[in-house]
């Protein structure tokens, strides 16, 4: 039988058995689409992770209290064994040539109260450098004022969600509010930034770091954000930041350093593994379906 005869017979068979042909084509289309969608979802998740880390700033080295063995994943909050202090932050700022600027972080939560309204908020303590390090923009007023980070006024900067829910159309600048039963004066409103690595800046209140630590009776910083001079200076900045606090803490390295690249590579590897596993499952399903289709067609 000639090839043309085989093709003619096959086409005639497909025409006669229209329902079978349609179901076969649908099965092939669904299988191929499933593989493509799963692969695309994996790539989309990887791009989302990269964009999330890009949103926290550039050329960053993050110093966390507590020595935790890690490959880029944030250590548990309860893992610290030594204090990471404002004095450590100031030493890094003034004694590390590869460091451009430093922003300390303290963290707490409490009730934000004004005019009979109350809302639980996350309270972040920091310094004026925080705005540059985390690329924060202002919608109204000003960010935290400069000054000695060991002291701090009772002023605060609020996110747009806090402004909308508590103040409505009223201008919050200059208003006296209560945060965890302590009076503060609102000096600024952040521009909308949304969530970044699980932190919603729109629903956050920022206060001077010393004030925040005193407010929640804290003796150690939550994080120190270190920005290197440029991308090529990151290894030098990491070396200097590792050596200086180690000398200050009796030659004991009781802290952990993280970089954006390390975190991105770790999450990227996890996403790649999940994508490969899902694509493999879809491919197996497609192969099984293909065998069934071949059996029907033959």
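-> sequence recovered:
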């Amino acid at each position: 039988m000639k090839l043309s005869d085989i093709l003619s017979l096959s086409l005639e068979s497909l025409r006669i058995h229209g329902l079978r042909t349609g179901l076969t084509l649908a099965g092939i289309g669904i299988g191929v689409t499933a593989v493509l969608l799963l692969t695309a979802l994996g790539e989309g998740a990887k791009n989302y992770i990269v964009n999330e880390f890009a949103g926290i700033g550039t050329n960053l080295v993050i110093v966390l209290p507590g020595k935790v063995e890690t490959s880029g994943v944030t250590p548990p909050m309860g893992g610290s064994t030594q204090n990471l202090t404002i004095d450590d932050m100031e030493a890094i700022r003034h004694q590390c040539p590869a460091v451009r600027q430093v922003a300390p972080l303290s963290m707490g939560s409490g009730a934000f109260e004004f005019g009979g309204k109350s809302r639980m908020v996350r309270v972040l303590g920091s310094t004026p450098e925080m705005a540059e390090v985390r690329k924060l923009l202002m919608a109204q007023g000003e960010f935290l004022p400069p000054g000695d980070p060991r002291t701090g006024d009772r002023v605060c900067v609020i996110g747009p969600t806090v402004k909308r829910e508590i103040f409505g159309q009223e201008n919050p600048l200059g208003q006296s509010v209560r945060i965890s039963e302590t009076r503060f004066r609102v000096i600024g409103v952040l521009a909308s930034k949304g969530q970044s690595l699980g932190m919603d800046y729109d629903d956050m209140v920022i206060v001077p770091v010393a004030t925040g630590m005193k407010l929640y009776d804290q003796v150690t910083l939550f994080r120190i954000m270190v920005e290197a001079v440029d991308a090529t200076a990151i290894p030098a900045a990491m070396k200097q930041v590792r050596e200086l606090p180690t000398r200050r803490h009796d030659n004991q390295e009781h802290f952990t350093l993280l970089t954006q690249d390390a975190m991105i590579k770790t999450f990227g590897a996890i996403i790649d593994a999940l994508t490969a596993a899902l694509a493999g499952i879809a491919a197996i399903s497609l192969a099984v379906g293909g065998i069934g289709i071949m059996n029907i067609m033959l």
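The radius of gyration is 28 Å.
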